[in-house]
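Below sits my pick:
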Amino acid sequence: MNLTPRQLHIVQLIRDSRVARGYSPTIQELADEIGVAKVTVHEHVGALVKKGVLQKEPNKARSLSLVEGLPLPNEDNGVRFPLIGRIAAGLPIEQFEQSDTLDLESVFGPRVGEVGSTFALQVTGDSMQDEGILDGDYVIVRRASTARAGERVVALLPNGETTLKSFYREPDGRIRLQPANDAFEPIIVNECQIQGIVVGVMRRYDR
């Protein structure tokens, strides 16, 4: 098969969803997962149907399925997380897109039903060093919109910047994003958007 990287990604998302959930994602869910317009996914799906990779029932929201017995190219047994940028562990910095990936074996793979729910960020700064998260480390993050007290979170601040801190809610309802380094002050905000919870840390020592 001659598939583009985007087409292969769509096929793998459909396959993973059917394995984990028993049904296919909708076109809108695919668009949200990949970060493109719905019409773009429609175009790719149409191309994949023409190539004989996908089959689709008309007038059904979750009708996409892989043609039975069709092997997918470039598959391996590892886990690949999107590496989407760097996250501040000092002062917050603006998040940015980065077209790279971080391959792992299986330790940090998504749980059943969490297709595409895990990603990696590279840490900059040392505000979390007392919890063993150092400048240059990679944190593995599970997508989540809520957090419990004490969990290490990726938080989007009201000014549009992101930061990595421990999450606490104050008695007055405000949120405290607590560093793990006495040289840094906690960030106190009325509200913030939780984007994920740290589930692991990776470090390379020969850099």
Observations:
- The chain has two domains: 5-66, 79-202.
